[in-house]
Every structure is written in C-alpha cells, then in structure tokens.
Write a structure and sequence with these properties.
The structure is a single chain. This protein is of the alpha/beta class. It folds into 2 domains: 176 residues, Aspartate Aminotransferase, domain 1; 247 residues, 3-Layer(aba) Sandwich (Aspartate Aminotransferase, domain 2), CATH 3.40.640.10. It has 15 helices and 14 strands. The chain is globular. The structure holds pyridoxal-5'-phosphate. The site of pyridoxal-5'-phosphate (PLP) has 15 residues, from helix 4.
C-alpha cells in the first residue's frame, strides 16, 4: 500500500507537533508503523491522504457508533453552525442533550457538560472529595480515566502502550492519595477499604474496562464495589466514557444493574465533537458551582454545535432495535475472529460485549492488567501490520478496544474476518506463533 503522502506529512508534523500527533497512541510507535493521515471518513470507512480506503474499527476511539458522517448528525451540526459556533451563554441545545442523557442513564438525575472525558473524571473526583471531605481515591490497574494528574498511576490506554508507569511532571504528592488495585479483585478492594476506613472519597472504575483491551467485570465485582462504597460512605464513580451509550442506552450500569453515585461520560455523547459530562443524583450534583461551591467551569462547555451533534446522535440511538442489531454485528465479528484464529491453531482470547471487544494473543483467561500484559505483543504488531495492508484499520495498540458501528455491514465484517484469517496464516508461516 502506498502511504508516501502520510509519511511526508508525518515528517512535517513531527517537526512542529510533539511526536507528530496531538494524542500519543495515534503515532503508531508501539506497532512500528507510520500513522495514516486521514482526509475523509464516511460510514464504516476512512480514506487516507494517498487515497487508500480502510474499514475502520477505531471509530475515533469510540464516539462514532453510528459510523462516520451520519447524514442526520452532519445536518444538525451544519444547522447549528449557521447560527453561530459559540455563545458563552446558555442555549436550548444544552437542555436537549441533558434531558436525553438523564432519560437514558439510570444514575443521572442532573448533569454538567464539559469538553472531554478527562475533564469529566477530574471534576467527578473533585466533587466526590468535596462531598465526602476525604482525599483518597481507589482506581484499578489498566483502567484509564484521562490524563489528569491523580489518574496517572498504573493507567491503561497510551500510558500502557508506551509502557510508562506514570508520568514525569506529576508530583508524588499529587498521586499519594491514589491507590491502584487489580481489576476484578474484590478481595484486595475489601481489605484496602477496611485499612483506609473513613479516608476513601471515591472508587473510580471503568465498569467494563476498555483501555487495556476489553476486560469484562466478573460476576459480583461491580455489585461488590457498590456494597463496599455504601458501607464505607465512599462514592462509586463509573467512568462510562467508553461504555456510556456503547453497550446499552443506559451504559454498563443498566446492563449490570449497578447504579453508581457519579457517572462520567464522553466520546459517544458528543457525536464526534468534543464533549464530556458528569452526573449523578440531584443532591450530589447540587454541590457543583454555582448551585454549590465545588468549582468547575468551561469557556466552551455546552457548546451549541457540539450539543447539536450529541443530541442528534443520541436520538438515533434511541430507535427500536438499534442495540440488538449492533450487538449481532459485534457477535459476528468477535466470534468470527476467534474461530478464524483457532482454525490456524492460534490460541487467542477474544473478550467482547455488545459492539466493543478485543483479541489478545493469550490463551486466556484475560481478566486483569497482569494477564493483559502477558499477551504476545510481537504477534499483535505483525497482525496489526497485515490487517492494515489489507485495508482493515485497527487501533495501533494491543491495549485498545475495537468498535463496530451501525454502518458496518455483515459483508464488511466477513471481509474483516477473511483478512484476519490470512493474517493468522502468515503469522504461523513466519514462525511468529513459536
Ligand atoms: C477516552 C477516555 C477518557 C478520556 O477522555 P478524553 O476525551 O480523551 O479526555 C476517560 N475515561 C475513559 C474510560 C476513556 O476511554
């Protein structure tokens, strides 16, 4: 595949933007590849600067559940843009998106809009600390909650991809209140909560981990966290920036029937524009300024164009059968990948739920960050390269999820499984599978 224009632009970018990218994983460093510069996106496909087209499973890292450039979303954006792109004053679209979110997400009665998932989690934890009057937070190894200081401890996503434990520039004193524990290990949480009795403001968790690849919560894990939080007066924060509106209209909390005290959203709720949100009960959210005194603000928060994109997206998700149909596609792709690997005698573990999933070169089970890290990374790198050569665009990291959108057709998914089949054969014949 000719990617000479992308190579040229990447060199140009690298001279003036750190690493040539505005978010680290995009640089494709861990898969030893040149990032593709995208010039347009439509439905399930991306087109790069050299005119190659790809079936896209990155979905802008989650938001594009409807596929790219959905006509109703684009029409809403254009209509909003024609009326001005930002007011810095209230607008009707804020109410519309807030109502849609509150209608769908069980744990949200009141919601505040921000501009990214990072802002949502950072603000939710500030609020939890203010409400409880406590400092400590518990998070889980391999979960990613954006790039705020307090979360850069044993984090997933780019932090994991680049293999860095935390980040320089984060003072020890900023993370001394963050305790990171193994995902799915309720015993370790129980004992930490006992030891730290009365000091933990919040437990923050991705109810379905999606930033170390996909790792599902085991039976009783989320309920156990809920019970521990209730017992210790700690707030349970679900970071549903990926899972919100992805695994169900009401997110993972609806799917598993566990209601958190605070919910963080992002990605899908912006329909491809920069939006995040955090919400909870009226009592808790009333502590946020100006109703309460927990300060949090944003020049572009509730931006009319972004609100319009989000509202148009959520309206489409509410159509009957949207989720069952998308789930069927997820099942087709993710079971197809597993079967194709098994046919070649390759032991993989495919974790998936609804339309998000990931394949680990690991015999399994993959239940936490430790098992994720045992997977065969060089096999993944070569798999990634073969797939991209065949026009299948996967996240350039073994620590990221793949997303199926409503725009993927069964034929697209079959084509993807066929490409994977060929990739598996090549891995075997190159001796990669040892
Ligand atoms: C993407 C993500 C974030 C951060 O969102 P940004 O919009 O990138 O700041 C936080 N939490 C989870 C679970 C995410 O997947």
């Amino acid at each position: 595949m000719n990617i000479s224009t992308s190579r040229k632009w990447f060199d140009q970018a690298a001279a003036i933007i750190p690493g040539g990218v505005n978010s680290p994983v995009r640089a494709c460093k861990s898969v030893d590849s040149t990032p593709l510069f995208i010039t347009s996106a439509q439905g399930a496909t991306l087109k790069d600067a050299d005119g190659n087209t790809y079936l896209d499973y990155v979905a802008s890292w989650g938001p594009m559940i409807l596929g790219h450039a959905h006509p109703e979303v684009i029409a809403a954006v254009k209509k909003a843009a024609d009326m001005g792109t930002s007011y810095g004053a209230p607008c009707r679209a804020e109410i519309e998106l807030a109502e849609l979110i509150i209608d769908c997400v069980p744990g949200i009665e009141m919601v505040r809009m921000v501009n990214s998932g990072t802002e949502a989690t950072m603000s939710a934890v500030r609020l939890a600390r203010a409400i409880t009057g406590r400092d400590k937070i518990i998070k889980f190894d391999g979960c990613y909650h954006g790039h705020a200081d307090a979360f850069l401890v044993a984090a997933g996503s780019g932090v994991a991809t680049l293999g860095i434990p935390g980040s320089p520039g984060v003072p020890d004193s900023f993370v001394q209140h963050t305790l990171s524990l193994p995902f799915n290990n309720l015993e370790s949480v129980t004992s930490a909560m006992d030891t730290l009795h009365g000091q933990v403001a919040a437990i923050i968790v991705e109810p379905i981990a999606g930033n170390m690849g996909v790792v599902l919560p085991q039976d009783g894990f989320l309920t156990g966290l809920r019970n521990l939080c209730t017992k210790h007066g700690t707030l349970l924060v679900f970071d549903e920036v990926i899972t919100g509106f992805r695994v169900a209209l009401g997110g993972a909390q609806q799917l598993y029937g566990v209601t958190p005290d605070l919910t963080c959203l992002g990605k899908i709720i912006g329909g491809g524009l920069p939006v995040g949100a955090y919400g909870g009960s009226k009592t808790i959210m009333s502590a946020v300024a100006p109703e309460g005194n927990v300060y949090q603000a944003g020049t572009l928060s509730g931006n009319p164009v972004a609100m319009a994109a989000g509202a148009a997206t959520l309206q489409l998700l509410k159509k009957t059968n949207f989720y069952p149909e998308l789930e069927q596609k997820g099942r087709q792709l993710f079971t197809g990948l597993r079967v194709a690997a098994e046919k070649e005698g390759i032991k993989v573990t495919v974790n998936f739920i609804a339309s998000m999933g990931s394949m680990f070169f690991h015999p399994g089970p993959v239940t936490d960050f430790a098992s994720v890290k045992e997977s065969n990374s060089s096999a993944f790198i070569n798999f990634y390269k073969y797939m991209r050569e065949s026009g299948i665009y996967l996240a350039p990291s073994a620590f990221e999820a793949a997303f199926v959108s409503a725009a993927h057709t069964p034929a697209d998914l079959d084509k993807t499984i066929e490409a994977a089949s060929t990739a598996f054969k090549r891995l075997v014949s190159s001796g990669e599978m040892g």
